[in-house]
């Protein structure tokens, strides 16, 4: 790190451990502030984000079964957050893999699948666990088990220094060196108090400070970015702002990846907290509005499809919810979801094809199973065609 870049000590300072074996300076963050004087533009940005979250929360409350509309959204969140860290996969591959009843061989898809499992795990744990070290270590173990990074102590705090920079960076050339491992205990204790103690601080501000501090502490050898982004959604659930992880915030961070990293670093180097909070609030506002629009579109599609088959004696109506949960399906997936025979599952998909709900998308994966894609639902979720996604 270049000491001359760190011109503010408002949120921490460079320091060293003279008596340790680690000779390099590192950044020791200050405790998370419980009060902040913010610029009017920042307050306005937070207000817009809070309003967008309120609209999204209200819309989610009218859904009779929110889980039906979570599948593709969670897959997008898992994919975007993993892509930020270099994972290469497409949404169609991720959703297709969910239909497989065999272990996933592709390393990239396993990483995304682990992220999805961590979301599901956290959604259950947050009902009874506070947002503490125990909580995010459990998610970290799920995230890194059986994938790249497994050798980096899944579920355990790091016991050695880390540094951030280019793939071949050394401590001398790193852009950022997080706090020494000996400082983690005190820093995480303050983080836990901040996210769990009652506070009158606006939700968006709490989320921005929580995420900044977690990424700055960098408590693990690997997976810090993904866990930190997971925690944004779980804090919203913890604070009773959202009832489910329906805010796909990593999509905004992926699209604006360079600015995302630069804004975090600018707080450390120059104390630019307003700029970071404005960026974070813009991400929340944009993604909350996008999520609300997606839910409205999916509810409209579900109602139209139900009207189409009202009175039919087959089980094709039951296929609607299966397609909403995952718009890329196989006969095997339909059989598993509806508890029908293989011939019945095939007949239901062909009936859905005549209704214009699905089309064949060719064969994929082990054994070359035929995939069927619900194109209208796919477009409502992604705003792209299925074929566009295949080429990414």
From TrEMBL:
Q: Which PROSITE patterns match?
A: FIDO
What organism does the UniProt record list as the source?
Glaciihabitans tibetensis
The reply to whether GTP-binding figures as a keyword in the UniProt entry is no
Name of a matching Pfam family: Fic_N
Q: Which residues form the signal peptide?
A: none
Q: Where, by residue number, is the active site?
A: 218
Q: Which domain of life is it from?
A: Bacteria
Q: What are the recorded GO MF terms, alphabetically?
A: ATP binding
Fido domain ranges (all copies): 131-282
Q: What is this protein called?
A: Fic family protein
* Entry binding sites for ATP: 85, 218, 222-229, 260-261
């Amino acid at each position: 790190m270049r000491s001359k870049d760190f011109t503010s000590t408002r949120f921490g300072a460079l320091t060293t451990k003279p008596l340790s074996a680690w000779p390099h300076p590192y950044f020791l963050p200050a405790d998370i502030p419980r009060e902040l004087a913010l610029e009017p533009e920042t307050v306005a940005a937070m207000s817009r984000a809070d309003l967008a979250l309120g609209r999204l929360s209200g819309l989610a409350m009218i859904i009779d079964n929110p889980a039906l509309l979570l599948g593709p959204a969670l897959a997008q969140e898992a994919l975007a957050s993993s892509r930020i860290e270099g994972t290469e996969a497409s949404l169609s591959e991720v959703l297709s893999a969910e239909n497989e009843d065999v272990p996933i061989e592709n390393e990239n898809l396993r990483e995304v699948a682990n992220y999805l499992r961590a979301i599901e795990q956290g959604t259950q744990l947050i009902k009874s666990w506070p947002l503490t070290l125990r909580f995010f270590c459990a998610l970290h173990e799920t995230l890194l088990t059986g994938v790249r990074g497994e050798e980096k102590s899944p579920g355990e705090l790091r016991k050695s220094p880390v540094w951030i920079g280019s793939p071949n960076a050394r401590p001398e050339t790193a852009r950022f060196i997080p706090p020494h491992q000996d400082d983690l205990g005190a820093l995480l204790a303050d983080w836990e108090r901040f996210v769990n103690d009652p506070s009158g601080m606006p939700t968006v501000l709490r989320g921005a400070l929580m995420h900044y501090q977690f990424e700055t502490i960098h408590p693990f050898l690997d997976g810090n970015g993904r866990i930190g982004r997971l925690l944004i959604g779980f804090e919203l659930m913890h604070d009773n702002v959202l009832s489910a992880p329906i805010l796909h915030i990593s999509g905004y961070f992926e699209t604006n990846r360079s600015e995302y990293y630069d804004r975090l670093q600018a707080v450390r180097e120059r104390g630019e907290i307003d700029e970071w909070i404005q960026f974070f609030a813009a991400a929340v506002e944009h993604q909350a509005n996008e999520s609300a629009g997606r839910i409205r579109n999916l509810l409209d599609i579900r109602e139209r499809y139900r009207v189409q088959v009202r009175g039919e004696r087959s089980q094709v109506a039951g296929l609607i919810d299966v397609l909403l949960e995952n718009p890329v399906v196989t006969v095997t997936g339909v059989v598993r979801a509806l508890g029908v025979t293989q011939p019945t599952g095939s007949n239901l998909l062909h009936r859905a094809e005549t209704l214009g709900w699905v089309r064949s998308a060719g064969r994929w994966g082990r054994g070359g199973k035929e995939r069927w894609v619900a194109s209208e639902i796919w477009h409502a979720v992604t705003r792209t065609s299925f074929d566009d996604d295949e080429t990414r």
